[in-house]
Amino acid sequence: xxxxxxxxxxxxxxxxxxxxxxxxxxxxxxxxxxxxxxxxxxxxxxxxxxxxxxxxxxxxxxxxxxxxxxxxxxxxxxxxxxxxxxxxxxxxxxxxxxxxxxxxxxxxxxxxxxxxxxxxxxxxxxxxxxxxxxxxxxxxxxxxxxxxxxxxxxxxxxxxxxxxx
Length: 165
Known about the structure:
By secondary structure, the protein is mainly beta. Helix content is 14%, strand content 48%.
């Protein structure tokens, strides 16, 4: 009888501990970093970038978006969708890695352009397997531009995020 009572007490204690243990202590907690905002503002057009990075399935998932606004009423020039002609939106992303002394390029998407009239576009990558440059701190640097005589825009970075092996 004493043995049964001790066994039941252990079962109850384990159940109580599992009930009060935070979920993130029991399983992997997804985490991400992102940043967005206007990288070009003028009376004619505004260019907005979004850079995102998370674990994905271990090696990283990156998302980049560019959007062009314009034709607003002063003093608010931005916020109205403005469709750009085909080939007039450009986006690229670079996965960058902290090597201990500075940020270095780890992977680059190349340039992508809109192929229809549109006000925004995005690119996404899911990196399989191990992080491309090994475990460590990574960030997504997104470049977005709008062509209106000259290429107007700039870059946004997601902020640092640790990707384990």
